[in-house]
Amino acid sequence: MSLFVPASGAASRLFVSLLQLDRFRKTGGPNTSALLLDRSHPFGLPAARFFSNLRRLALFENLKNVLASRGRDLSRLLALKDFDPVLDALFDPSGLDVARWPKALIPFHRQGRRVLTAFEEHLAESLAFGVRKAHFTVPQEYLSEFRRRGKKWVRLHVHRRGGRFRLTFSVQDPATDTLALEKGKGWVHASDGSLLLRPGGHGALLGNLERTRGDIVLVRNIDNVPVASFQAIGNTWRKAMVGRLIEAQTEAAVWIRGILKRDCSEDTLLGAEKFIQRTLGIHCRPLSFAKRRVQALALLNRPWRVCGMVPNTGDPGGGPYWVDGKAGPCRQIVEGSQLVKSQKKLLLRSTHFNPVDMVVGLKDVKGRPFKLERYSDPSQAIISNKHFEGREIQTFEHPGLWNGAMAYWNTIFVELPARIFHPVKTITDLLLSGHTVRV
Fold first, then answer.
1. Measuring CA to CA, which residue among 42, 46, 54 is closest to residue 86?
2. Residues whose CB is less than 8 angstroms from the CB of residue 43 and which lie 6 or more positions away in sequence, other chains included
3. Which end of the chain has fewer CB within 10 Å, C or N?
4. Which DSSP state fits 64?
C-alpha cells in the first residue's frame, strides 16, 4: 500500500488577497495600513484577518527571522500597524518569497518549536496509518528541495527507529504541456516570442500514478491534512475505505475467474451481473450469452476506486454524479469546469463534495498493472480561464486526474464525516479547527 499526492500547486493561491494588496500599494495606492481601514476593499478584510492573527500562524517565526535579519522587529511592526515591511518580507525574492513556493512547502503547523509543512504532515499521517511508501509529484525547480527535506524527515522519524520508508518524487512530463489562447489574438506567446506552453493540469499526472506501480494507493490532496491530533480519525475512515476496496476487488476476482472458465454457467454469469448492479449501479444489457460474458468481463476487469465524499457546505469544487457516457450511465466525480452554464445549478443542489480522499486499486486479478490511459475519457478535457502577464487567457487541460482521467474506472462512493475535511485555500484557513496553532 502506498500514498500518492499531487504537490505541484503554487502557494500563490493561498496569498491572493495579500498579493493584490501588495501590487496595489506598489503601483501608487495608499499604504497597507490605510487600505486595511477601508473595509470596502475586496482584499481589505482578508488581509486584516491575516495581520491580526499572524502570531497564530506557523509562518510567524520564519517571517520574524527574516525581518530580524533586516533590523526590524515583527512584534513592534504589528503593534504600530506598519505592515508594508511585513509584506516585503513575505513576497520579496530576498525574503520568504512565499508566493513562488509550492503549497506543500509552506509552513502549515507547529509542533512545539518545530514548524511543519503540509508535505511533512502527509508523511507523518501516512506513517501513522502504516504506509511505508509515498510518492509526491512536484515542480521541477523544487525537486532537489523536496528530496533534501524528505531525506531529513525519513532519517529523523523512520531510520532512527530502525524502520524503512520509501519516498519518491516525479515531475509532470513536459510532453503533456499544452497551448493557450488569448481572445482575438490567437495563440499566446512568451516574452521571447515562443509559443507559451503551460502544464496541462493534474490530469497530466495519470502516467505518474501508473509509474508508481502501486497496488492499493491512497490518493490525497496536498492541502487537506490537519495537525497530528486530528489525523487519527481520518486514518480510521481510510482504513474502512481500504477494506471496502479489498472487499469489492476480491469478489470481482471470484466472478472474473468464474466467467473465464470454459464451462461458465448461466448462474455464474447472472451472479456476476447482479454484483455489478449492486456494487456499481450499472445494469448489464440483455445480449446473447457470449456477449454478456464479454460485457461482464469488461466491466469487472478495470481499475477500482473508493472515493470518500463529505457533505456539501458550499465549497467550490466537484462532487459525485451519474454521467451518461458512451458506455451508459456510470458514477464519476465532476468539477464545475466540466459543466456548461445550464448545468451549473446541479452543483448548488448537490448533497456531497469531493475532498480528494480516495483509495485506488491499480492491478488486475493476475497482479498486472492496468494501462490507466485506456480507462480515461479524452473528451472530458477542460478549458480554463487563467491570467498571464496581466492578460486573460484560455488554457487547455487534460481530463482531470480524478475526473475524466478516471472516467471508466469502477467507482464506489462512500460518505465521510465533515470533521475529517480540512482544506486550506487561503492562508487564514490555517486558523480553522484542525489547523489551529496554540501559542
1. 54
2. 16, 17, 18, 20, 21, 24, 35
3. C
4. H
pLDDT tens figures, 17-63? 888 888 877 776 666 666 665 556 666 678 888 999 999 999 999 99
The reported pTM is 0.91
Is 142 in contact with 252 (CB distance < 8 Å)?
no
Listed in order, strand segments (DSSP E) in 130-241 are 133-137, 166-170, 180-182, 186-187, 216-220
Q: Where are the domains of the chain?
A: 2-171, 203-431
Q: How many CB atoms lie within 10 A of CB 274?
A: 12
- The alpha helices in 350-420, defined as continuous H runs, are none
Separation of first and last alpha carbons in the chain:
37
Which H or E element spans position 394?
strand 391-397
Q: Is 365 exposed, middle or buried (CB count within 10 Å of its CB: 0-12, 13-18, 19+)?
A: middle
Sequence-distant (6+) residues with CB within 8 A of 294 are none
Question: For residue 186, what are the CA distances in angstroms to 164, 181, 198?
Answer: 52, 5, 15
Sorted by sequence, the CB contacts under 8 Å of residue 151 that are 6+ apart come out as 167
Question: pLDDT tens across 126-170, in order?
Answer: 999 999 999 999 999 999 999 999 999 999 999 888 889 999 999
Distance CA 187, CA 176 (A): 17
C-beta separation of 119 from 101 below 8 A: no
Q: Please give the distance of CA 176 from its chain centroid, rounded to a whole number.
A: 18
CA distances from 387 to 39, 159, 195, 319 (A): 26, 44, 16, 26
Per DSSP bridges, beta strands 180-182 and 352-353 are unpaired
Comparing C-alpha atoms, which of 48, 11, 50, 60 is closest to residue 438?
A: 60
Are the C-beta atoms of 4 and 217 separated by less than 8 Å?
A: yes
What type of residue sits at position 329? P
For the record, the C-alpha cell of 118 comes out as 503540509
